[in-house]
Every structure is written in C-alpha cells, then in structure tokens.
Amino acid sequence: MTEAADPFVHHPVLRSRIIEPEKSRFRTFEPSDLDAEMKARGMPDNWRYSDEDREALRKAALAGREGQDIWVFAYGSLMWNPAFLFAEVRHGRIEGYARSFCLYDVRGGRGTPERPGLMAALDTGDHCDGLVFRIAADLVEAESRILFKREMLMGSYVPEFVGCETRAGTVEALAFVANHDTPQIRTDIAHEDKVRFIASGSGRLGTSREYLENLADHFEALDIDDEEVFGLLKDVRAWREGPETAPDGR
Fold first, then answer.
1. Strand partners, 176
2. Which of 151, 160, 213, 220 is catalytic?
3. Residue 64: is it exposed, middle or buried by C-beta count within 10 angstroms (0-12/13-18/19+)?
4. Which residues are bridge partners to 95 per DSSP?
5. What is the pTM of this model?
6. 3-state secondary structure 24-69
7. What is the mean pLDDT of the chain?
8. Whole-angstrom distance, CA of residue 197 vs CA of residue 208
C-alpha cells in the first residue's frame, strides 16, 4: 500500500486535535507502573493481565495478518490520543455496534470509589462513528504492543476485527469490544447517574467530563451528529453538585 505523505490528508482538521504519538504518556506506559497504586487500593495481585497473557492475546488477535498494515478503530480516547504511530487516519463507521457509556471507573483512571467516573465502550447496537487509524506493516509489531498494553490492561475489552466503512472504502479494523464478563462494564446505569459520574469523576488520566468534551470536539470537527454524546454533554454542563446528588459509589 502506498504511504500517504500526510496522515491527515483526509481530515486536516484533526491535525491539532490528535496528540502526537511521541508525546503521549502511553508510549512508555507499562502495566506494572500501576501495581503499587492498585495494591494500595486493595486490589489483588492479579488485578491485571500478566505480560505473558497479554502478549498471547495480541498474537491471537493478529494471527494471519503478519506482514500487513492493520487498521485500528477508535471510538473513545484513542481518537485524540492513540499513542501508536499511524500512517493514515479516516472517519469510519462500523455497523452492529454502538458507543455505550458503560465503562464504570472506580480504579483511579477517571474515577474513584468516592467519585466514580464513566467512559465509553463498544457494545452491540445500530452503528458507531469514530476514527480508524492505519499502522504500516513494518511498525505493526512494535506499535500493537503499545496499543495492547493500554487497551488490554485488564479484561474490560475483547479484541475483534470488524468491517469499517470509510469514504475511501471499507477496511477491516481492530476494535476493542466491551466484555460483559467483567464488573467494569455496567449497562444498568441510569441516565441521571451517568451524568453525575461524568460530571464529577476524576483520576490520574483526567476527568470524565474532559473525556466527553474531547469526544464532542472531534464530532463537531467532523460534522458528526452523535445524539448521545451531545445530549450527555448538555446535561453534564447543566449538572450542579449538591448534598442530594453526591456520588454514592454504586
């Protein structure tokens, strides 16, 4: 495949909205960096995937694609902070899946037990708009390791290749889909609690509100009308903390 001279050739508006991979904290992130913090939070030693198990999952996901470019579908923070080097980025849409604010965070990322946070996961649904990034074949081995250390830290997701529609054609993209067998995936959260968690959740990665605002900013730039994202953002901006709405850690 011929390399695009400019990764942003399809969407120049994204150039200032995506953190340069070399400047991302996730390029040098190691899962073991969080072990001491998680121990202090009372988490068991096996709170995350071992390096060996994660590597086995990565190899299984990419099996049969050796020597090929791969595409990665981004529906959340990967949209503005992919951390891996990419040769091209496009607006993409996948059918049969939807962005769902069901990733419940009390482990310090964008929320704590006292102030839970909430982020998006990819679940079954109608369709999901996002970005799709192409990693050149000669970089797949190194860059996919960086990706899996971040996305497959623990069992919140299952890696799957899905069809992704773009204006330049359909591609098969690696996506990280919600794993309903883990307690981090919560599909029972009422709308008012979603608003509260997003409005007040905060952790080492920033706030849940910043996460939602970044999503909205990208959709505005790409002229994508996402009813749930913009509806949640409107309600989060209207939310006011008071004694009767203090997070209860559910």
1. 159
2. 151
3. exposed
4. 127
5. 0.93
6. CHHHCCCHHHHHHHHHHCCCCCCCCCCHHHHHHHHHHHHCCCCCCC
7. 94
8. 7
Phi-psi region of 74 (alpha: psi -120 to 50; beta: other; left: phi over 0): beta
**pLDDT computed for residue 71 by the predictor:** 98
- Could you tell me how far CA 4 lies from the centroid of its own chain? 25
Q: Is 97 in contact with 73 (CB distance < 8 Å)?
A: no
- Quick count: other Cβ atoms within 10 Å of Cβ 47? 16
* Cα–Cα distance for residue pair 67/100, rounded to 1 Å: 33
> Which burial class, exposed, middle or buried, applies to 249 when counting CB atoms under 10 A from its CB (0-12, 13-18, 19+)?
exposed
Residues pairing with 92 in the sheet: 130
**Cross-strand bridge partners of residue 235:** none
Per the model's pLDDT, the better-predicted residue between 200 and 249 turns out to be: 200
Residue 66 annotated as catalytic: no
Which band of pLDDT confidence, cut at 50, 70 and 90, is reported for residue 240? confident
User: Which residues are registered as beta bridge partners of 185?
Assistant: 103
- Compute CA distances 31 → 109, 150, 157, whole Å: 13, 8, 16
Q: For the chain, report the end-to-end CA distance as a whole number of angstroms.
A: 49
Q: Is residue 72 a contact partner of residue 147, using CB atoms and an 8 Å limit?
A: yes
Two tokens, residue 167: 């204006």
**Spatial CB neighbours of 6, under 8 Å, sequence gap ≥ 6:** none
CA distances from 183 to 73, 102, 108 (A): 24, 10, 15
